[in-house]
Every structure is written in C-alpha cells, then in structure tokens.
Specification:
The protein has 237 residues and is an alpha+beta fold. It has 6 helices and 9 strands. The protein has one domain. The strands form 3 sheets. The protein has a 4-stranded antiparallel β-sheet, with no helix packed on it. A 3-stranded antiparallel β-sheet has the order 3-8-9. A two-stranded antiparallel sheet has the order 4-7. The two termini are 19 Å apart. The model has no long low-confidence stretch (mean pLDDT 92).
Length: 237
C-alpha cells in the first residue's frame, strides 16, 4: 500500500514537472533604436513549491514502506518489536558495538538480517552515494527538516543567423542582443533544462553536491519494489 501510494506521488510529480517544462520560460523581444540593437529576453518561470513537497512525500512513502516491512519481519520472532525497529540504511558497515544499529535489528531472525545487510549501500564501497537506498535516506533526511530543494540546470541558448550576438545573464533572465538590422534573420533555440532535486542552498556546512532527477526517483522506486521487497517474500510463506 505504501509503495502504491509512493507511485501515485511520483506520477503526480512527473505531471507537475511536465507542466513546468512546457512553460518553463517566456520570451519578449524589443528594439533598442538608440543603440541599433534588437533585444531578446528569455525569462525562466518560477518552479512551483509543490514539486519539492511531492519529492518528500514520495520518498517518505517508500521509506515508510520498507520500515513497515521491517516491522512485519520482526514479528516473525517476537510479539512486541522494539520501538527502534526499522529497516537500516548504512553507508558504512556498522560495528558490533554500534548500539543504535543493534537496537534497529535485534528482533530480526539471522536469515532476515543477512538479506538486509546484503542490500546495504556500504556494499557498493566508495560508490555508496549512487545506491538507491542511500539516495532514498538522503531525501528523507532533507525533507525531515526542510522542503527538498528544486532547481534547474542552466538554460542553454543557441543563436544563429546573425553576425554577432551578445549575451547577458541576470537572475532567472538571459538577454541576447543582436544588430537591429539583422533581427529578421535571427534564429534562436532555448533548451529547457532538467529539473534537479537536492539539498537546500543553506545546508549546515554550506556545501552540498547531492542531486537527483526524476529518473533517479524512478530507480529508487524500482529498486525497492523489484529488488528489496521480493527478497523477503519467502519469509512470509
């Protein structure tokens, strides 16, 4: 049920992103007669706040789904799982002395714990940041305190048909200037940027390089739905 709900959030998110990209910019053109220039202004539309909220709702539904799974797995050995019971997600192999980790997994049968550990991001070594579960956990940790940040890769504009063109960049605006006499031969193409999700700009350390796109969210959903959950089906037969 949680994964189905996550998919509904993902489909709604795709729709919001599609609607944004279809009207991601507005173009205005004007003549600067005094300086003999033709001015093209390309203004980026503001990204809807709902997009970041939907990313968080998607991530938490997936995360809650595997935690629900963990609870049911714990019930295989006890009638009262500990309140810390959850599906652990670790980028480093936990030490036996790690009490926080042990509290999360103490109620799992050894065979269950073996499968859980085989799915951990630390199994990917230095590439743990590309692991779907690490990315899922990262999104949930961001959304726990702030709305997931949404931004766009920089617009790219191709200009043809004129002898010269000058570009100036402002906040959310690109201005292209060409000789006024060549405005009728001016051709330009705007490439709509990808929408990117990640850390807010004001992160604690002021630095973040975590980014994920729609395709990455789909990979998280597929990994949990087709790799994680099926691995535990046999325990409930």
């Amino acid at each position: 049920m949680k994964l189905r709900r996550a998919n509904e959030h993902l489909e709604e998110l795709k729709g919001e992103v599609r609607r944004y990209t279809e009207s991601a910019y507005a173009i205005t053109r004007s003549d600067d007669l005094k300086n003999g220039m033709h001015i093209v202004r390309i203004e980026q539309a503001i990204l809807p706040d709902l997009i970041g909220i939907l990313v968080g709702e998607f991530a938490y539904c997936v995360r809650s789904g595997i935690d629900n799974l963990a609870w049911q797995l714990a019930l295989l050995t006890t009638d009262k799982p500990g309140r810390q019971t959850c599906f652990p997600i670790d980028s480093e192999c936990p030490l036996p002395s790690n009490k926080s980790y042990q509290d999360k997994v103490v109620d799992f049968p050894p065979t269950v714990l073996s499968v859980i550990e085989s799915l951990q991001p630390y199994k990917a070594g230095a590439g743990f940041r590309t692991h779907p579960l690490w990315q899922l956990n990262k999104l949930c940790n961001i959304d726990k305190h702030q709305v997931v940040a949404v931004s766009c890769v920089e617009f790219s504009v191709r200009v043809d048909g004129v002898s010269k063109a000058w570009r100036r960049d402002f906040d959310h605006i690109i201005q292209i200037s060409v000789p006024l006499a060549e405005k009728d031969t001016l051709q330009f193409k705007v490439n709509v940027p990808d929408v990117v999700f990640g850390d807010p700009i004001d992160t604690t350390d002021g630095v973040s390089d975590f980014e994920i796109r729609l395709g990455g969210l789909g990979e998280i959903y597929d990994f949990v739905g087709f790799e994680v959950v099926p691995r535990f089906a046999a325990f409930f037969k």
